[in-house]
From TrEMBL:
Pfam families documented for this protein: ADH_N (PF08240), ADH_zinc_N_2 (PF13602)
GO CC terms of this entry: mitochondrion
Lineage: Eukaryota, Fungi, Dikarya, Ascomycota, Pezizomycotina
SUPFAM superfamilies: GroES-like, NAD(P)-binding Rossmann-fold domains
Gene3D superfamilies from the UniProt entry: Medium-chain alcohol dehydrogenases, catalytic domain, NAD(P)-binding Rossmann-like Domain
Stated name of the protein: GroES-like protein
Domain Enoyl reductase (ER), residue spans: 12-362
Length: 365
């Protein structure tokens, strides 16, 4: 008995960019294209996005060990068209334009002609018609991380608005969504920390105040910007490091929170997030102290929820949020003339450099 509902036959093979051992040069492979399992879709990918975590996973001995000897895919974000639907899947049909995240680190990569999202596991939503595939591919991982960070806003500020939020790394992929959602969903006053060259961009995302980390003492500038008698409600760190902790109690009130998506480390190529609790006792101590006396401290992971992608798609349809793509890189699956090597080098350098405004997207041609 067939487990697939598809009217158009699938191609026999799919090309992907993969690697074998950690930190070895990726290469293009062609593998048989599997029909969807009962809970899967098959999506033809039109665009994918690169995130720092893609470089971190490629570099990671732990992933290398967990995934074993198989070819490992690169890329988590994608946007594309549904071309086959597993027999147990409800609510999706061939031809649907979708965007989503393959959230399993050892799962297939999205730098691939076709992917197999698992419904109920991998976040997925209908692509808003006002976004191109290149725009939609730039959204899932970073917006789901921003939702997770903003969840740490004190409950009264979530309900009534007027919270004060600081976003460090406000011009980057996650930061620009933290700024936009803090304004649109929670009506907060937002301070973006960025370099002077990105100040106008961060203001355009909705920031009320800017602190230029390249020319100002950040803590001092943040304190000077506070109205008398007020402190911040949430500090979102998208950069890493420990500089702010000396002034933590002056900046944040006891019910406020400091959330980081990176941790104390600052390397761009080493894995961040909650995993760093395992080898950074200072973070564990800070978490416990925050729990007892405040302000709360947390190193958080993105929320892998389809309904949050649906929510942001709704905001996009109403023209309430913007997607910013700095560059679309082409040729990633092009074996001839070193096309894929060149494209990989370009996306790698963008991620390692850490100077991207918005997102870098990869066209899957
Ligand atoms: N825990 C999780 O679930 C999770 C999820 C997503 C990402 N992350 C991690 O979060 C970090 C950020 O990710 P991302 O995708 O937002 O990165 P990104 O887009 O590559 O960030 C680049 C931006 O960071 C800014 N920046 C660099 N140093 C800064 C500093 N000291 N102060 C303020 N801004 C600075 C740069 O602006 P300038 O050019 O002006 O410096 C640039 O616009 C990465 O380490 C990533 O691995 C974790």
């Amino acid at each position: 008995m067939s487990t697939t509902t598809t009217t158009t036959p699938l191609p026999a093979t799919s090309k992907s960019l993969t690697f074998l051992a950690p930190a070895t040069p990726p290469h293009v492979i062609s593998t048989p294209l599997a029909a969807p399992a009962a809970s899967e879709l098959v999506v033809k990918v039109h665009a994918a996005a690169i995130n720092p975590v893609d470089i971190q996973l490629w570099n990671s001995a732990l992933l290398g060990w967990l995934a074993g000897k198989k070819e490992k895919g690169i890329g988590r974000d994608y946007s594309g068209t549904v071309v086959a639907v597993g027999a147990g899947v409800k609510g999706w049909k061939e031809g649907d334009e979708v965007f989503g995240l393959i959230s399993r680190p050892t799962g297939e990569g999205t730098f691939s002609e076709y992917v197999h999202p698992i419904i109920g596991k991998d976040p997925i939503a209908k692509k808003p018609t006002c976004w191109t595939h290149e725009m939609a591919a730039a959204v899932p991982l970073v917006v789901l991380t921003a939702f997770s960070c903003l969840d740490w806003l004190p409950a009264d500020k979530k309900k009534n608005g007027f919270g004060r939020v600081v976003v460090a790394g406000a011009s980057g992929g996650v930061g620009m969504w933290c700024v936009q959602l803090a304004k649109k969903l929670y009506d907060c006053n937002v301070t973006g920390i960025c370099s002077a060259k990105n100040a106008d961009f961060v203001r355009q995302m909705g920031a009320d105040e800017i602190v230029d980390y390249t020319s100002e003492f950040v803590s001092q500038a943040l304190l000077e910007n506070l109205p008398a008698g007020r402190q911040y409600d949430l500090y979102i760190d998208c950069v890493g490091g420990t500089e702010l902790f000396a002034d933590l109690h002056a900046l944040l009130h006891p019910q406020a929170a400091y959330v980081t998506i990176v941790g104390d480390k600052t390397s761009r190529t080493a894995m961040g997030g909650p995993l760093t609790y395992l080898y950074t006792p200072a973070q564990v101590l800070r978490f416990l102290k925050g729990l007892l006396w405040g302000p709360r401290y947390a190193n958080v992971l993105l929320y892998a929820k389809s309904e949050l992608l649906e929510q942001v798609a709704g905001l996009a349809e109403r023209g309430e949020v913007e997607v910013v793509v700095q560059e679309v890189v082409r040729g990633l699956l092009l074996e001839e003339e070193g096309g894929s090597e060149e494209a990989w080098k370009r996306v790698y350098e963008f991620m390692e450099g850490g100077r991207v405004r918005g997102k870098i997207v990869v066209a899957i041609e």
